[in-house]
Design goal:
heterodimer, A: 316 residues, mainly alpha, MetI-like fold, 2 domains, 17 helices, flat, B: 303 residues
Chain lengths: 316, 303
């Protein structure tokens, strides 16, 4: 009886809210189609699936189990794909995290309010342009008679221009540099707002005690933004394979990668695109993609776990 | 914003202050230059004769000023069409995303909404997990969105992150504002459109700006979800040129070979295209940059 009563009142309450419930359900329907159906669609990785069958094919295709995963492990690209993905992700992580902190500290030490504003505004401009443009800039600066080659020749450190864009040993430095260039100012905003929240009395007290400016940065500013650093670190760990903070691995590998440097620039994400959409091997590509997703999910949960432990914050 | 350095102004600057200030200003100048110079160099080279630019030595100012690169671009029907497509997708996409996302957010902003906890969990799961690009492609294909202009605007209509931002913004509005209209029997959609949206303009502007920039810059959906030449966006055309050019030697110049008398080169037209692609962003940047800081800090609070 009591349960019935409550059930009734729930339906009554929903009835009263039917307008706002409709708004929300419109959103949920959208998520079902564009997020949850694809999540379910991952079972194509275990099937002899043909894209021509559409969503229906997921139910009718022949089950092949781990066939495609075995094929991936035996793929002659397997080790280089895993290595390239990890090397690109980790090295970008190492550089893109400390630089915004450093930039925020530098901007914070500028005395003139106007200069401070100008430098900050300019520093996050690159965040708003697309990776396509960044790749265009790279070409412009690094071409055989571009500024970088001209400069290196004029100071005499090289005699022949270097083919930066196609040399495989240059891909990683270019990727790291451009990732820093593009996202440094953006993430510095976060650290600057954290610095602004530090109690100014702490600085005054430290100054009275004869604490030098560098020491104040080291003992007050940095500890003051520690929790922000933790949160950003965890966020970027969760998206490590996507390219960390900026999530730029795919764009970089696709736009800066070419026949000359593919040995180091081909990562799992670009390989999935080439195998799936260009070669039409959808089920195999989905299996490769799933391998990366599994690692990513593990990373999201691990970083969330540490986040809860370290800062008490968690993403979910 | 209180600046702790201001407290030091009364006393004399020490030697340490001089050293640190000099270093800070020097670094700030370097950062300023590194961030802006690529834009500047592209602009001056886009306004310079391409054949002349190939001889090098242009760093700060155009040597042989010309508009030919841009003329060449506009005369190319592919670029003119791409510009139009990009413009339309930006306008339509931004409108759809902002309206749909905030409508859903409005519903979710009611704390007494039945099932709210479940709905929010569904949103968060959708935010962090995905089936990957291939199953996503399958869904788009089943819905006949492949090779369809709508693929640019429909699949991105609900942005969960902006939805969270909008929810917290709506929850900051006093509930009494909509209550009297509700008692008069106004529909929720009317209350939302006539009362809630008008007072949420700064939040709407923030979401709209980020969405518009994303739409304008996008090349991914065009490259992988369409093969139709009539649907090419600027981002895609640029991507195609740049990908080809990094392999091709600069001396194998398609434009120069086709018209010996012309001053344009592949590189100079590419630069003109890049300027057309970043131009609108650079032009509105001074006006929208005040929304940016609020944008990232709302996002950070939600973390």
């Amino acid at each position: 009886m009591a349960v019935d009563e409550r059930k009734k009142s729930v339906w009554k309450r929903i009835g009263k809210q039917k307008q706002i419930q409709t708004f929300v359900w419109a959103g949920l329907l959208f998520l079902f189609v564009f997020n949850f159906v694809p999540m379910f669609g991952i079972i194509m990785a275990f099937e002899n699936y043909s894209i021509a069958d559409g969503v229906k094919g997921l139910f009718t295709s022949e089950w092949v189990g781990l066939k495609y995963f075995r094929e991936f492990v035996n793929d002659y690209n397997f080790f280089s794909l895993i290595r390239n993905t990890l090397v690109l992700s980790l090295s970008k992580m190492v550089f893109t995290l400390p630089l915004p902190i450093l930039l925020a500290l530098i901007i914070n030490e500028i005395r003139s309010r106007l200069v401070k504003r100008i430098v900050q505004t300019v520093s996050y401009l690159p965040y708003f342009i697309s990776w396509v443009i960044v790749a265009g800039f790279c070409q412009l600066f690094l071409k055989s008679n571009g500024i970088v080659n001209n400069m290196l020749i004029s100071i005499g450190s090289i005699e022949q221009p270097i083919a930066f864009m196609t040399g495989k040993q240059y891909f990683l430095p270019i990727a790291i540099f451009t990732a820093c260039w593009k996202d440094m100012g953006w993430w510095a905003i976060l650290f600057l707002s954290a610095i602004a929240g530090i109690d100014p009395n702490l600085y005054e007290a430290a100054e009275m005690d004869g604490c030098s400016r560098l020491k104040r940065i080291w003992h007050i500013t940095l500890p003051g933004i520690k929790s922000t650093i933790t949160v950003v670190l965890i966020l970027s760990l969760g998206n490590l394979l996507g390219g960390g903070l900026g999530g730029s691995n795919f764009d970089q590998a696709w736009l800066l990668g070419n026949g000359g440097n593919s040995e180091v620039s081909e990562i799992i994400q670009t390989y999935v695109m080439k195998i799936g959409l260009s070669k039409g091997r959808y089920a195999y590509a989905a299996a490769i993609g799933l391998c990366q997703s599994i690692i990513s999910v593990v990373l999201v949960f691990t970083s969330n776990f540490f986040s809860k432990k370290v800062s008490g914050d968690s993403l979910f | 914003m209180a600046n702790y350095l201001a407290t030091g102004r009364r006393r004399k600057r020490s030697r340490e202050d001089w050293i640190i200030d000099t270093a800070v200003y020097l670094l700030a100048a370097i950062i300023f230059a590194i961030c802006l110079y690529p834009f500047w160099l592209s602009i001056i080279l886009a306004f310079n004769e391409g054949t002349d630019a190939r001889t090098g030595g242009i760093y700060f100012w155009p040597r042989k000023f010309t508009l030919d690169n841009f003329k060449n671009l506009i005369d190319d029907p592919a670029w003119a069409k791409a510009l139009l497509i990009t413009f339309f997708r930006t306008v339509l996409g931004t409108t759809l995303i902002v309206l749909f996302t905030t409508t859903v957010a409005y519903g979710l902003s009611f704390v007494n909404l039945v099932g709210r906890k479940v709905y929010m969990s569904v949103m968060i799961i959708a935010m962090y997990f995905s089936g990957g690009i291939i199953p996503y492609f399958m869904v788009l294909r089943t819905l006949h969105l492949i090779n369809n202009f709508l693929v640019y605007v429909i699949p991105s209509m609900l942005n969960i992150f902006y939805c969270m931002v909008a929810i917290s913004s709506f929850q900051g509005i006093p509930p009494e504002l909509g209550e009297s209209a509700r008692l008069d029997g106004a529909a929720e959609l009317t209350i939302f459109a006539k009362i809630i949206l008008p007072i949420s303009k700064p939040m709407l502007a923030t979401i709209a700006i980020f969405t518009a920039v994303g739409q304008w810059n996008s090349w991914y959906d065009c490259a992988f979800f369409t093969q139709n030449k009539n649907l090419r966006t600027m981002g895609y055309l640029l991507m195609a040129i740049i990908n080809k050019a990094s392999l091709a030697n600069q001396s194998m110049d398609a434009y120069a070979a086709s018209a010996a008398s012309s001053t344009v080169t592949t590189m100079s037209v590419q630069l003109a295209a890049m300027i057309v692609a970043v131009g609108p962003i650079l032009l509105i940047y001074p006006f929208f940059q005040r929304y940016i800081v609020s944008g990232i800090t709302i996002g950070a609070v939600k973390g």
